[in-house]
Structures are given as C-alpha cells and as structure tokens.
Amino acid sequence: MAxxxxxxxxxALAVIAQSVRGTFVDPAANLMPCSNMQLxxxxxxxxxxxxxxxxxxxxxxxxxxQATISFDINLRAPGGSDVPSAxxxxxxxxxxxxxxxxxxxxxxxxxxxxxxxxxxxxGFTGGSGMTGTKDLYKGMLVRFPxxxxxxxxxxxxxxxxxxxxxxxxxxxxxxxxxxxQIPKQLAYVNDISSTDPxxxxxxxxxxxxxxxxxxxxxxxxxxxxxxxxxxxxSIPILRVTLSAIINATADEATPxxxxxxxxxxxxxxxxxxxxxxxxxxxxELNFGIQTDAAPNPNMASGDEGDEITSKQITLTPNLLSYLxxxxxTLAMADAQAYHSFFALWGSGxxxxxxxxxxxxxxxxxxxDLGGTHVTQSPQMWVDVMSKxxxxxxxxx
Length: 396
What we know:
This protein is mainly β. It has helices at 90-97, 329-335; strands at residues 11-17, 35-46, 61-74, 100-105, 109-115, 118-119, 123-125, 141-143, 154-160, 165-168, 179-182, 184-190, 200-206, 209-226, 237-251, 270-273, 276-277, 280-286, 289-295, 303-311, 314-320, 339-346, 352-362, 375-376, 380-381, 390-395.
C-alpha cells in the first residue's frame, strides 16, 4: 500500500483577528499569499528526578508543546483604485498584531490641490485646506501634482507646525511653488500606547494537512527591502514569526490562492536619509519585538499566551560610503541628532509603497571593503515618539 505524498509547494495560509483570547476564529475566507513558511513544533519537557534503583534514569516528562510559524509576505500595495476599507488589507492584520495602527485617509486633504502659501526645497507652508495642529500630518505622504504626476512628485512629511509649516523628508532641486495635496492613503503607524494587540487565528495548509492555530502573536517582524539592479533582483518582503497554540489538525486539500501579480521592485523611486538622496543595496526596518506568556493555572496551557512585553525599533540601511563632504555618517553618529528616512517605490496609484521614519539617530559604522564599492551599514535607533515609523500606500 502506497501513501499519498505531501508536496511542499502545496501550501497556503489564512489569517484573521480574534475577538477574545482562547477562542479560535475560522480565517478560511482570508487566504493570503506567503513564502518560505516554516511551522516548528517542539516538546516542552521536565526531567523526572525519581530514583530507579539503578544508574539508569527515566526519560523526561512531556508537559506541553510550543509552536511557532514563520513566513515571508511580499511587500506590495493593496492595489485597486481606492483606499481599502478597514481591515480589508490582509497583511495589515499581521501589522496590527505587531502593534501598528491602521490609519485610513479616505478623502484627500484638501479635496482638490491648492496653492501653497510659500515653499522651499525642503518644505512649504500649507493653505486653508490644512488643519493647524502640530504633527497632525507627520509621516504622511504629500503630492505636488504640477511638479510631476509620478513618484518624483510625492514626498513624505517629517513634521508640521500649528502654523501649517511643513518640513519634508527630502530636498528638491528647486523651491516648491505651485500646488500641494495630501492624497488618500492607507498607513500602518507604530503604536506607542500601552494597549495590547488582539491575538490572531491562523490556518496553515502544508501539503494537504491543515493546522488550526489560535492565540497567535507576532514575535518578530522586519521590513526587508533590497535594491533591484540591472545585475540582480530582489522582492521587498515582510519577514514574520508568530508564536501559536495548535487548536486542531486535519487532512484537507490545500485551497488555491489567486495570483496578485508582480511585486514592485525597489528601484526608480526614492531613498532619502537626512534629506539627501543616498544610494545603497537596501534597508531593513526591524521592530525588535519581545514577548512572554504570563503563567495561569486556570488555562489549559497553563499560561495566558504570548503578549508583547518590549519593542525597540531599529533601521539598518546598507549604504554606499560617501566622502566626508557629501555624507558624513561618522559625524552624524557623534552628534546623535535626529535624521529622517524616506523610501518610496512602485508603479502608480494603488501600487506604491513608502516607508517613513521621521526621526532616527545614527550609530557608528566603519567602511566595508568586501565588495567592489565601499559601503557602510550603520544602525539607526528609533526613539519612542508618536508616529515613529510608518508603512504607507497612497491613492490619487
């Protein structure tokens, strides 16, 4: 008798937010493409100290099991012609579980582009269509439609004052002088509140076997974006690991996942650090998540399930190393001042991705001579500030 073999490619994932901890919610309607999935299951054991009347010792007692699931998600925009409704963007479910807030700007600000009051190469003063609240628009994208209809006409707001004075995360070649508009956009913004994110339920089909996972919690999240060139290519990804409790298993045919089309590559876009266009092979935004589970004998598992107990965001760009007069990372690390980071890429409305870090401090890094070009990989520290890191998808 021959058994059916399980094919590694025959794998799928579905995810949904739970309403309460400990109750599995069927996520089957939320099939989400992913790659490089690993479901790890390990026993939790305790040594049996009983004497046996010999030098031999009994085997360890198995007291439970731990499960983690890791996978990559291609970092592509939601698509379509308008901003998705709340909770509709499936990777956003993962981002919210990592303590990010989903922010939907469903109407452009102002509704039609309006003339700016004054402008410079690094900012502008908005008109009556803007609200005079400090940092209300921090981390959001802004368009200058008469400057350029594509990516060159889109920038990121580092900060705005109550007087509507806007500082951007980049430097333009000439002073801004015409119209501006903050377009409709979907954003995921770092949440520094003390509110715990809701746990997730996952279904993972691995070669025709289904695992139902409950009380899933992101334990590691990184945005990894590598530059695609004429010599090599790379797909921007979200790299995710979650802890989980196995709720059930069953043999079930793996469902088909509709194709979402190509993922925009990191090129023909923007990368600005400290308002300067700097080159390099990419960057990684790591959320530095730490979790722990509080013990509770009232639970079947003996604990409350993993919760986020610590998070420290870091940004690590891999940069071309420039002359001191052009871009002096050593001096910036010595000064410990804040510098903005802004990355933007994509092919048009509904297909554009931006990563915005308004303020980060450089650490020291030496020159790497291991390749044909001199490079540096300084780690940048992101302090606890409102809207300290954002992933943004604009629509216009």
